[in-house]
Batch of 3 targets.
Target 1
Amino acid sequence: MAKELKNFTKRSDNYSQWYNELVVKADLAEQSAVRGCMVIKPYGYAIWEKMQRQLDDMFKATGHTNAYFPLLIPKSFLSREAEHVEGFAKECAVVTHYRLKKNPEGDGVVVDPAARLEEELIIRPTSETIIWNTYKNWIHSYRDLPLLINQWANVFRWEMRTRMFLRTAEFLWQEGHTAHATRDEAQAEAVQMLHVYADFAEKYMAMPVVRGVKSATERFAGALETYTIEALMQDGKALQAGTSHFLGQNFAKAFDVQFMNKENKPEYVWATSWGVSTRLIGGLIMTHSDDNGLVLPPKLAPIQVVIIPIYKTEEQRKEIGEKVAPIVAELRSKGISVKFDDADNKRPGFKFADYEVKGVPVRLALGARDLEEGTIELMRRDTLEKETVPLEGIADRVVGLLDDIQENLFQKALKAREANTRTVDTYDEFKKEIEKGGFILAHWDGTPETEARIKEETKATIRCLPLDGDLTPGVCMVTGKPSARRVLFARNY
Amino acid sequence: MAKELKNFTKRSDNYSQWYNELVVKADLAEQSAVRGCMVIKPYGYAIWEKMQRQLDDMFKATGHTNAYFPLLIPKSFLSREAEHVEGFAKECAVVTHYRLKKNPEGDGVVVDPAARLEEELIIRPTSETIIWNTYKNWIHSYRDLPLLINQWANVFRWEMRTRMFLRTAEFLWQEGHTAHATRDEAQAEAVQMLHVYADFAEKYMAMPVVRGVKSATERFAGALETYTIEALMQDGKALQAGTSHFLGQNFAKAFDVQFMNKENKPEYVWATSWGVSTRLIGGLIMTHSDDNGLVLPPKLAPIQVVIIPIYKTEEQRKEIGEKVAPIVAELRSKGISVKFDDADNKRPGFKFADYEVKGVPVRLALGARDLEEGTIELMRRDTLEKETVPLEGIADRVVGLLDDIQENLFQKALKAREANTRTVDTYDEFKKEIEKGGFILAHWDGTPETEARIKEETKATIRCLPLDGDLTPGVCMVTGKPSARRVLFARNY
């Protein structure tokens, strides 16, 4: 059983298969009976809860409150903003009827044709339209601004090719929707939330990100500017981990949301929206995990420390239990989540493998000899290093170790990214380098045509124009035309 | 403006209209553009967050973990459990298509007829079917049991007559779904969760409830037994505030979920499900609020204390601010949520009215004279009593007062319920008494026919057979047949 648990495809053999197996073996999620929709299992959901709690605290610390808007959106709302409908009104779930009835010709139930809706409803793929239709009634004067609201919700996009966490038809996310009196304030909000996302990614997920702005082609449908955090996965592909949009006055105009300014003149409201989703869990997995399973940064690990007793007799088991109790209590008093797994129906070897696959950052094991010698075995999941240490002072040691692991994971990921970020000057070189994966910094003439050509010929896209990137001008690697600055390319998820 | 805020319909004039106005004026929720769906505004959602956090802690303390299952359910799943489909497959939102396309004959988008689903999908009205279809793969042996899972989610039931919080097409809720090896264990789980709900209602919502079991007619579709908590609103109508179902082996049989028991023989799994929803907010409003607006129990109030400065000059404002800062800090250090509202664009009178309508439990006001005399004005929302007290020691006084308010609200509601719970022996008396509202304890012969007749003739339903009720036998008030015990009747929401 222990062997089976750890019997993974290796990352170097087939990264994609390794990922799919890991999601299942670490008990994070599984495919459901509904096409493209996953079931998030308790262990996977516990990671999401930790992410949510932290992000929610950060949103509240920056002045936002939560609210809840309807799941269903009238079809006509999607058409109000011209670009938005292009981007979102295509592949979506459409509610056309509101009643089932007994099948008159056999078993089961059928859709009642008499219960057809006058106007079809769409399951929200994102909520700008329904929210701005609501904001219209909330905003009258500059005194009502800014409006800083976030929503935790499920959304639905009928994706053709899905992968658990990375791209699913239904997913969980948060979407912030803010309204401002001035262009500058809305811009600043969009940038602020980008930094909130980046801080969360780096400090909690231990996942280094490049903060940047999207090219026009890659912008959110309806935005004037899309800010993004881009992370590099172990296989050299980029993952867009969060986006923050400056929407200008597009939605205010589409839904006629005006306010009276201090001079008592009507103006359209300025908007932002920003979101991260359960996709972050995919990023977390692909940033840190190894051929032995999941590796979790301590700050997001549902179980930070597991303690496993190794005993032969019931008496030993009892004795170990007594020894462990004060350690558990001390760790918990320090805010650490500990599991003491003395379940009798699984052997230590199985437990070791299971918690390794599940990525528990620190494992403590205590056997008969440890009892005699006043020691305990300590294993850190990130390096798999084991050592036998004194029982005395173990809680403090674990606290320090958890900090070390958090920092080590970030540094390791950062080094991997640095080693896989290259600067390239010619298109030939680019074509060769892109095959190796990684981020490539290159000059581009700024046109959608060149961008499209690069994508078609190399499958690489412009991930972003890094905010703190090199602003030295040059010439486009493809066309030789002037380039204002290097931009960041990669193949991506 | 202050006047307008408080210009309510009185409860005694029109309770239903008072409720609807209050929901809007206290900024809790509003109707959305989608029929029967509400927007939960930040202040209303903040109450829901407090409820969620507390309930979630209580679920975890009783061994449950959270997970997430798909929003959409294949139509055929609903038909698997014969009674369940009767109860839930009627009024629901049906997804029939997965794509829109540009309207070939004009503006906007239309449903693409080529994108019709082979099998329609239903937006979950409740998740037993999709969850038991999933549990089938999770449960093989007695070692996999019990499975104790909860989900926080949105659900959808196409209700014809909706009222904000009390009955909406989409609502937010939690649904626990547990699987057990034995009948007794599942029964005990259903009862345990009933008590968790009751404790939450009484200790946090300050809403007294009767714990009981439903008659067969009022059972959840597919359950063997439904436990309920029933509260009495100020207008004498009952509110079913939470239910916990013992599902027997019905869903295990419908989805073929068997486990190998300790004797290595296959058995069907025993199940429970249990849920409370945003309807609780409706109950909270109708239990405590008065003609001046919302009254919130301190434990669920998003703002527990508001402090309002009363000043004429900027200097006074500054001086008051300095005086207030350490009070705010001290209250926060005691875990109390405080708002110091020194906004310049609203007058104290407006603020007073606004926080009164919003039900903030304690209001402190500080003016120039208070500065001189070292005093502060204190108002408690539950009784509207005002007093001027020493500034010295104000934080401790507020802490004590919040406890008093919490307790006072519960006792007041309990007295109101006791005053409106009557015992009745004849059907004539029953018909007269039911017009006055309230709970009525009466004998019933235990048949669905008599129950149906009472409902038709008096609009009263059996709310429950109270768990700790009087078990003395008697004769049915309607038919004169033997009755095992008195049951609880009321008209209800």
Target 2
Amino acid sequence: MNNIFSKSRVEAFSDGIFAIIITLLVLEIKVPHISEHHSAQNLSYALSGLLPKFIGWLISFFTVAVIWVNHHRIFKQIKQIDQGIFWLNALLLLWTSFIPFPTAVLGDYPGNIASIVLYGAVMSLMALSFFLLRLYLIRKKGLLEESTDLMSFRTGTMYSLLFGPVAYLTGVGLGFIHPYFAFGIFLGIPLYFVFSQSRTSSSVNH
Amino acid sequence: MNNIFSKSRVEAFSDGIFAIIITLLVLEIKVPHISEHHSAQNLSYALSGLLPKFIGWLISFFTVAVIWVNHHRIFKQIKQIDQGIFWLNALLLLWTSFIPFPTAVLGDYPGNIASIVLYGAVMSLMALSFFLLRLYLIRKKGLLEESTDLMSFRTGTMYSLLFGPVAYLTGVGLGFIHPYFAFGIFLGIPLYFVFSQSRTSSSVNH
Amino acid sequence: MNNIFSKSRVEAFSDGIFAIIITLLVLEIKVPHISEHHSAQNLSYALSGLLPKFIGWLISFFTVAVIWVNHHRIFKQIKQIDQGIFWLNALLLLWTSFIPFPTAVLGDYPGNIASIVLYGAVMSLMALSFFLLRLYLIRKKGLLEESTDLMSFRTGTMYSLLFGPVAYLTGVGLGFIHPYFAFGIFLGIPLYFVFSQSRTSSSVNH
Amino acid sequence: MNNIFSKSRVEAFSDGIFAIIITLLVLEIKVPHISEHHSAQNLSYALSGLLPKFIGWLISFFTVAVIWVNHHRIFKQIKQIDQGIFWLNALLLLWTSFIPFPTAVLGDYPGNIASIVLYGAVMSLMALSFFLLRLYLIRKKGLLEESTDLMSFRTGTMYSLLFGPVAYLTGVGLGFIHPYFAFGIFLGIPLYFVFSQSRTSSSVNH
């Protein structure tokens, strides 16, 4: 009994962390300093110079939102949280809570391959934590809700490897050709989740 | 089943984000630096120079509080959260979590029309997300609580367009005449909500 | 029905804000910069120079903890949250969320009477919000739990005026004689609450 | 009745604080500034210079995660929260919310014994709060759940003194020989908890 966690407290703790990360991301965008305080042209120009930061923020916002959705989806199928699930979840939270740093580095050095590698690596590790959590649940089926469709859970696990670490590392690889390819993949991964899920949802509700 | 979200977790996640944003706003107000550490006159003068920042903080605080109230009001009428509601809610959270940035820009450059345009644009997009969420719910009535008065929900939706994006863009337009007009509208919008609601509340409780 | 708030969401929103403020306070204490990186003497000396900041942080931490306790105590007696309670609670959250700023100013200028006036004024306004919330509840008894002892609620309301705004303004007044008197009162107010409550608790449990 | 706290609100408040602290830790890691924006070599070199900060962040992340686990474990056995438990819990939150500061100091001055003493002292005080909370519960058995095994609770209390304050102070002592010894102990303490618990969990589930 001492080794079983209260599901609602683990969810509340995780939700708190996701909510804070998604909100902290905007703090990395600093107000620009211009000398002529009343020049609308200078301020507009300075703000437009922050475009890479806005894009980085947008990508990370949707990425964390998708992490939340995936987290929600997995935890809905979990009946009981043991030490293994707790610490694999903590690993996921570790990499997720780190996202503001590579996001800030990418915003400051958008054209630098080192910042693309860093961003892709952290995201791969975050996505890998999801895969490990799912793998653990497949091994310990007793922790899953009885209603869980094990077949589709296994398929989802394979997909989470493909559209997770594999996709992010592909983005890093393409970034060596041109940074824009990497940005496209990094933004494409969360968008893929958003739209693939909405489509399924619509077809179900028809 | 995989496409339905736990309402309590979505609410907790949203509440977390609202709570963090409303609290982060004050971090944009930095302690002033004065050379004579013990001069009360110098410190008072330096603090009074932060007045535009205090006003910006006050406006944003009440704006986020009103967003919370509107969010609470809509979600009380929602029975089930599907993918569509989730992502329109995420869009609302996206713009809301961005508020600290235009607030900080407005606090640093209160007389600059570019900062007024930025603030009004972000607020319009935030308010537009509310309108889109309501529009989606009108189209998918099955997601609303049975007790919902559809007639008044439709009226509320039209009002949310008028006292939301339309009002904010009007504020931006008047800001071209004088910044004070824009500030008046930006502060007036949340205050309108606070007092119009309190009045209704009083009349009901009589 | 549209004018009644979900008590659990208002509590969760308020708890989120209290938790964030109490945690943000430490961010105002910056790591000191010393040139000789390995000199333990220099670092110890630089850290000891942060003593006024540590004391300011400690005072504000216990103050927010006491605010939480008082908030918890009042809300336990509230049956239903109407618009009036919500906005008086928002007023309390407004001043509470502002606390990190006067705390930082006090930490930077501990001997400056202007920073003592600012701190005392913000705390008085915060404490006044508690008083107004209690006054509103006395006027609208129907919103209180049936089990509430109205006599002791009225006494508590008078005490909240005395040990709140009156005590803080007294602290400000004594600060004109010497800053230490103000610090003593500012720290004494939350400590009074901590120990007076613990004592009552002990006598009840005997 | 006025002296009994709602367990769910105290847990939510504590969870909020833990979630924020664990997330704020990453904010102490600042994006490095390099002059040649496109040099991958320069950026990689600058990032690798942040290694002590990454290690400090990692240690503090796992430490706060372990604090959460211990907090969860103790609170699962608590039936009723009185003033004593509340304020001993507040003491624990006080030291825990302070962790970002010694972590930042350790990250900036990893080789300076003063920063090791500061880190170890704060952690000892945090761990001591756990011990005091447990001691209080042993004295006031009536506040514990009936199902609590008092014998193992007493053993756990002694262990919490040994693997808490005693271990941290030992780490500080060894740090006078070489900083690496201190780092080893500081990282070893949370890792010990992670693995000792996982092992117990596995043996139970076999």
Target 3
Amino acid sequence: MYSFKNDYSEGAHPRILNALIESNLVQEDGYGEDQFSQKAVELLKERMGRTDVDIHLLSGGTQTNLIAISAFLRPHEAAMAASTGHILGHETGAIEATGHKVLSIETVNGKLTPSDVQAVLDGHPDEHMVKPKLVYISNSTEIGSIYNQSELVQLSEFCKKNHLILYMDGARLGSALCSTENDLQLSDLPTLVDAFYIGGTKNGALIGEALVICKDSLKEDFRYHMKQKGALLAKGRLLGTQFLELFRDNLFFDLAAHANKMATILRDEISKANIPFLTHSPTNQIFPILPNALITELEKHYAFHFWEKVDTDHSAIRLVTSWATKEEEVTAFLENLKKLM
Amino acid sequence: MYSFKNDYSEGAHPRILNALIESNLVQEDGYGEDQFSQKAVELLKERMGRTDVDIHLLSGGTQTNLIAISAFLRPHEAAMAASTGHILGHETGAIEATGHKVLSIETVNGKLTPSDVQAVLDGHPDEHMVKPKLVYISNSTEIGSIYNQSELVQLSEFCKKNHLILYMDGARLGSALCSTENDLQLSDLPTLVDAFYIGGTKNGALIGEALVICKDSLKEDFRYHMKQKGALLAKGRLLGTQFLELFRDNLFFDLAAHANKMATILRDEISKANIPFLTHSPTNQIFPILPNALITELEKHYAFHFWEKVDTDHSAIRLVTSWATKEEEVTAFLENLKKLM
Amino acid sequence: MYSFKNDYSEGAHPRILNALIESNLVQEDGYGEDQFSQKAVELLKERMGRTDVDIHLLSGGTQTNLIAISAFLRPHEAAMAASTGHILGHETGAIEATGHKVLSIETVNGKLTPSDVQAVLDGHPDEHMVKPKLVYISNSTEIGSIYNQSELVQLSEFCKKNHLILYMDGARLGSALCSTENDLQLSDLPTLVDAFYIGGTKNGALIGEALVICKDSLKEDFRYHMKQKGALLAKGRLLGTQFLELFRDNLFFDLAAHANKMATILRDEISKANIPFLTHSPTNQIFPILPNALITELEKHYAFHFWEKVDTDHSAIRLVTSWATKEEEVTAFLENLKKLM
Amino acid sequence: MYSFKNDYSEGAHPRILNALIESNLVQEDGYGEDQFSQKAVELLKERMGRTDVDIHLLSGGTQTNLIAISAFLRPHEAAMAASTGHILGHETGAIEATGHKVLSIETVNGKLTPSDVQAVLDGHPDEHMVKPKLVYISNSTEIGSIYNQSELVQLSEFCKKNHLILYMDGARLGSALCSTENDLQLSDLPTLVDAFYIGGTKNGALIGEALVICKDSLKEDFRYHMKQKGALLAKGRLLGTQFLELFRDNLFFDLAAHANKMATILRDEISKANIPFLTHSPTNQIFPILPNALITELEKHYAFHFWEKVDTDHSAIRLVTSWATKEEEVTAFLENLKKLM
């Protein structure tokens, strides 16, 4: 049964495995002090045209979010996130477990605006409530949408003005930056956000996220936080080698572009069949709304996530494509879908 | 410069990389629900002759320790450890960061005895102090010693009688179990300790520790704790595939035996040269005491850890061997050492 | 300027101060082991007809909530509360600071029903989300409403069936139990909830809340949690003496009844003037909806809380009465109000 | 049975109770925003000749320590304390419960020196260990000794040079400052330490400690931390009224001087009987070493703390005097002691 369940169903892109094999017997220091990690960090800085950022390699998204946010905030400060935000509903209270409340904001498209955040600030005037301090956004969002440059600039300016930390979860940043609707570049981000991460796990790596800390005051002692939360890998080279391979040339972007292309084929054909979508998603996750009976049939042949009920007879499902999605499987899926309609 | 700095200087044993390559494009569910992880867990249960334990695969030692200990203890309860214990001095307060004090116990050889623990219990009679609840031991210890069966049985019985949780850090369990002085078997552990982990990272894996929870009351909801602390990998298959390969046959033990053999050659030859050792270590870490001038010379040719000053003119260094240590490098080191003496 | 801002504007009822004076020079043990605290605990058990509950005296509501909830929950478990719940919006993330998420539930009247809680359970099926475990309710609620017996019985049965902990914040329990609409008795509570507290601070004491733990599994080692969070007062007698006086006869209930009576006069007269209320509140907090201009005038003569905007021209204010509210001041307020209308 | 167990066996000094009575029915705002608290804060600033410090009133020592230390430190930073320090052994892991390790330092007299702290810094060079950041000292110490000016100046300079926070637990600051051996003044402290508290509970108040934050960077948002940890009392006036009375004239110092005087009588007479002491203590706690049989006899007539075994036949006990200790009881005790010898 072919799976459109997520973008981490397979292992790693073959070039990444090759890189691990080739470097395997070189002796290196541990905990990210190996040459591969250090070169990867330098390469990433180069790719974003900024030598003044700090970059740390971590294992996964929840780990990165919880370490970054708990390192950045003082005990009484809170994060804010769209109600669809990953830290709110899919990380088992990881942020709260470090002592910080996450304030939920209802949105229509998974994206936060200055007025959304202003409303939270207005509702938290004094010490009887937490102090809202960090704005958590995802790009692409958990429902597939992306921030365009103008939106991100506005949010960034608002945060700077209000002394808020702007943090971007980039678990699917590759897909966002390679979307046909995107007008942001990797090199724009250090200017616009205070910290963000470049997701490797969902874009061809075995594991690995590269956290970029842009704001100076957030940089100090970050490796202490990583160690304390169990994120400094003895064989940190595992992370370094992968990011080195992903960014040595255009591999990272090529993989994301492939995932997007596969999603686009799905989206276009499904649209042509007059099937509506739950959200506007120009990235590698799409959310078609199908009759329940059709979903039941599809589940016999394909793995995917049931997303939510829409009305009595219809529900949205989530289809995710990745660097590993085969075009012939996409075509076969569409044919199957048409047959079932 | 050849390194005896640690047992994680290289990548993974080639068979492990092969296993990753062969399984790479199979689609699997995430977060440890893939077939490789599930088979690895079954295999491990088989190897220890116990189907009633729970086994979870995690990324590293600090992560495993902090998740296990914080999941096992209530907020007012404390861990106890030898002052040399890894959780005390080398994990950046990871246990305290989850809210729990770690009580330090001075020992001569890195090992805890019932009377050591009894003394802590005696010193903590009421609610004005933490409640000592979990006994943390390492096998092999951080200074290379191991628990024999009789010692572990005594400690185990003491803990059961006093309603204490006995937890074994097995970062180097392979080396302990393969020591020529060892009389414990993997299958003894579920009976003797309440939880322990089998270290993969320091015995040939890229990353990976297998936590075995033996006591029923500690099992419930453990995956919630893993997720909350950022330890559920999206591609959990990375851990499963490795443990499957390590325990498919005798690989895990063969690798540890090789590391021990290399350490034995070093130890025997260094002893013959009338060089004393800081500790009695029958495992893959040894601590010869050398003249400071000699150490300075050695450092020009080899990488290793300076351990501690012994007297004005002598210091102990740490030499660590691994599955990847080459016998010719051991021989060369010994020759160099003799030349320098 | 007379204040209807809250029920803790004055010090303590004179009988309480007298009790402190009379017992002042008796030497006693510290930390709640004095005779006054112990007698108070026995007396409270007698008043609720249950000798099998555990009772602890603490300083304030936030302190009691955070210690109880963090002692009762394991790290991955969450509390649930009405969105108006005190722990959600007015305790500066105190619960999250102990590591636990608080899930917010929208309600119409500040009260939770089984179906409210069921919906949260349905939305939290697995380890990628927190495990909802504790139902936090307030009686009276933060908006003045109360649970009747039937509502509480239903919620209690639901919680028992679903292995949930039911915890009642009783900061204003006196006012709730003395409401003319109430059909619950203090002695009903140990059967219906797993833990609750009897608020002293807002009912005539200087400080003090009596936490009653009814469920056996929640009792163990509770004093450790109190000490760890800074709640074991060296002069615990300060709390014991006050509760002894409050419950020696009917003082606690007399004081609450007076507060309610004063609120009733306000409510009845304001109603007669055809002024609507934001919520149905039969207790000592009422929320009349007044024209904004009128509120501005009233603020020149009285202190009270602005509660929330209702429409362009109207807003709700909060008027709180207490054991210390003077009837002549209530009368004067009503006269003033009428003049300003 | 007369008690020398501690300095909080009685209630409050009568003048304090009077102050509570006199102010009782004045309506005031809550949470420390009442006029009494605000005047107390102003008065305290005046008494130490510094208007630029921030002062907050809290309920007890453990509460003050845990809130201050957790507010001052970032998650990876640790406190250092003498092994006799209250936060190490008598606060049930309160500091660790906020996530911070407390590093223990062995001392002879309960006091820390620059070289003690330097040794800890030397042992914590990198991110694999916590970062030692806050030096916790007590004055008087838990074993009755005091810092003289020269010692405190040296420690202060060392901390400034090493970017360490110097925090003084002043649970018994009154007794320290009124010791005949003391050469420090209250007004010296804001220059020498970054924060300290003036203990009220053990010097005549019902409850109450006044935390003085001297270093600017530690001041921001402190009330948030107080609220989050349950320390903002609804009737904050309870604290304000007491400190106002204690510092309105010389009451605070008079009470401490009386306690010291009573201790001095005990110390002098016990010394004359050739009974040795465990520590040099010029304050209100003394630790005579007595034959075990004599202690058993004394326990029939007096309440006091057994402190520790000294040799097979002798042990140290702790005798504590307070503002409430009666000279005739001191005399009677000494007579009894002599009879029993």
